């Protein structure tokens, strides 16, 4: 009996101890599609397995503009969540406000500096201190294709250049099928635009025009060719494209209603959730002309300052979990991205992910690795938004000439 009571005492102490440190983390994110929700659920599971409570603060709206608006109102009201899906230069803008927590203790304990490419670690820091945890590496310059639709239209092989693409799209259109599944929302227009800019102009032009915002590049004959190519794609989308959510466009390719979609590899999360296999049910290919380039988009969570000790502990456990190898594998298998943590075993990942992982390393050496402008990795939110709107206006309004489109984008790039 004595032994049993000792055991009972030990269990009680253990439960009491863990209960005392159990906290709640409210996490703002915009992962609401099928594949995204499954991925977010993996983070919730890990947080709960550490005894904490997960308060889901999901704000629908691909690309995250809605979530950013809601976050601002919460922080202004003095009621920030524990963590929020914020990435790229926007991290610095939140850090300047003095509202982000310094999570160096977790980062040092977990050795993040040795587990991250320096270019990524630097984006997660403000004045040398970690204020955000990186989740993944998405590749944006993908073209998704349905092999059965291409076969039906008599298209042999996957287009590698824009000329080959338009020849294939013409065949699909003539076969009475939708060539390009698109969602007419500004961030999706911008996503397609940046792949065209990369494919037509190459990585150096992309960097000069859209990252360095060099006016000479922005008003060059190359940018004219980019907009001519971009506008030509519009003619291969369907009349119901305006306002369509990105994952519904992906569903059109999954369900053999459309041949192509230009979208980052979160789209692969939708194919995966639908039980589809790359190389069998669908094709992942570099957007035309971009096979030697990689537009990266690193999702991350900024951590907000919290008062309560148990909430701070839960927040630290959340940050550690995000960069942990267990989460890095299961989350990215569902999300369509690749782990941001270095030296991960890629055995369970599919061929698209393995190609992504290989190209991420190779393009870093060749100069083909560029930040996604459409997904807020490259320039400040205000100028990114102004260029996004100018690009979307050009896509939507046929009356805007190519010459005016070039001028409008170049002007938007001067936004302070
Ligand atoms: C991106 C984000 C991805 C995915 C996509 C669609 O900006 O980085 O994780 O959510 O938007 O919403």
Strand count: 15
Count of separate structural domains: 2
Number of helices: 19
Overall 3D geometry?
A: globular
Q: Terminal Cα separation, in Å?
A: 75 Å
| Second CATH tier, the architecture of the largest domain | 3-Layer(aba) Sandwich
Radius of gyration (Å)? 23 Å
Low-confidence regions? none
Helix content: 40-55%
Small-molecule binders: beta-D-galactopyranose
Name of the CATH homologous superfamily of the largest domain: Periplasmic binding protein-like II
Q: For the residues shown, what is the average pLDDT?
A: 95
Can you characterise this structure?
With 416 residues, this protein is of the alpha/beta class. Helix 2 crosses helix 14 (266-273), helix 10 packs antiparallel against helix 12 and helix 18 packs antiparallel against helix 19 (402-412). It is built from 19 helices and 15 strands. It has helices spanning 2-21, 34-49, 65-76, 89-96, 104-109, 112-115, 118-123, 147-152, 162-174, 186-211, 215-218, 221-234, 246-254, 266-273, 309-322, 325-335, 351-366, 381-396, 402-412; strands at 24-29, 53-58, 83-85, 125-126, 129-130, 132-134, 136-139, 142-145, 178-180, 258-262, 283-286, 294-297, 300-303, 338-339, 369-371. Helix 2 (34-49) links the parallel strand 1 and strand 2. The termini are far apart. The model has no long low-confidence stretch (mean pLDDT 95). Beta-D-galactopyranose binds at residues 30-31, 36, 62-64, 138, 246, 266, 297, 299, 375. Beta-D-galactopyranose is lined by residues 30-31, 36, 62-64, 138, 246, 266, 297, 299, 375.
């Amino acid at each position: 009996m004595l032994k049993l009571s000792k055991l009972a005492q030990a269990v009680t102490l253990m439960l009491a101890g863990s209960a005392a440190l159990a906290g709640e983390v409210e996490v703002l994110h915009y992962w609401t599609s099928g594949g995204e929700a499954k991925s977010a659920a993996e983070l919730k599971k890990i947080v709960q397995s550490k005894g904490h409570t997960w308060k889901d603060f999901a704000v629908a709206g691909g690309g995250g503009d809605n979530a950013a608006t809601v976050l601002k109102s919460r922080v202004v009201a003095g009621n920030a969540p524990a963590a929020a899906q914020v990435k790229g230069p926007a991290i610095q803008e939140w850090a300047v406000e003095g509202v982000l927590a310094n999570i160096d203790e977790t980062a040092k304990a977990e050795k993040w500096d040795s587990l991250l490419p320096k270019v990524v670690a630097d984006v997660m820091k403000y004045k040398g201190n970690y204020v955000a945890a990186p989740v993944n590496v998405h590749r944006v310059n993908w073209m998704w294709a349905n092999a059965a639709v291409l076969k039906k239209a008599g298209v042999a092989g996957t287009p590698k250049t824009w000329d080959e693409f338009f020849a294939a799209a013409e065949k699909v259109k003539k076969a009475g099928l939708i060539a390009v599944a698109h969602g007419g929302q500004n961030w999706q227009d911008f996503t397609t635009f940046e792949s065209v800019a990369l494919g037509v102009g190459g990585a150096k032009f992309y960097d000069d025009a859209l990252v360095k915002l060099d006016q000479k590049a922005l008003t060059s004959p190359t940018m004219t060719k980019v907009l001519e190519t971009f506008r030509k794609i519009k003619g291969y989308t369907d009349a119901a494209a305006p306002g369509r959510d990105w994952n519904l466009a992906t569903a059109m390719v999954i369900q053999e209603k459309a041949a192509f979609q230009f979208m980052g590899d979160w789209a692969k999360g939708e194919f995966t959730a639908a039980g589809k296999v790359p190389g069998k049910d669908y094709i992942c290919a570099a957007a035309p002309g971009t096979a030697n380039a990689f537009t990266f988009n690193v999702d991350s969570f900024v951590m907000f300052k919290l008062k309560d000790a148990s909430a701070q502990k839960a927040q630290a456990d959340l940050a550690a979990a995000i960069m942990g190898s267990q989460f890095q594998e299961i989350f990215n298998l569902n999300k369509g991205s690749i782990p941001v943590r270095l030296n991960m075993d890629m055995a369970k990942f599919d061929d698209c992910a393995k190609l992504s992982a290989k190209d991420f390393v190779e393009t870093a050496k060749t100069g083909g690795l560029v930040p996604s402008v459409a997904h807020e990795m490259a320039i400040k939110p205000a100028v990114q938004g102004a260029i996004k709107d100018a690009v979307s206006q050009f896509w939507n309004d046929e009356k805007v000439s190519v010459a005016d489109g070039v001028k409008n984008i170049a002007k938007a790039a001067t936004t302070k």
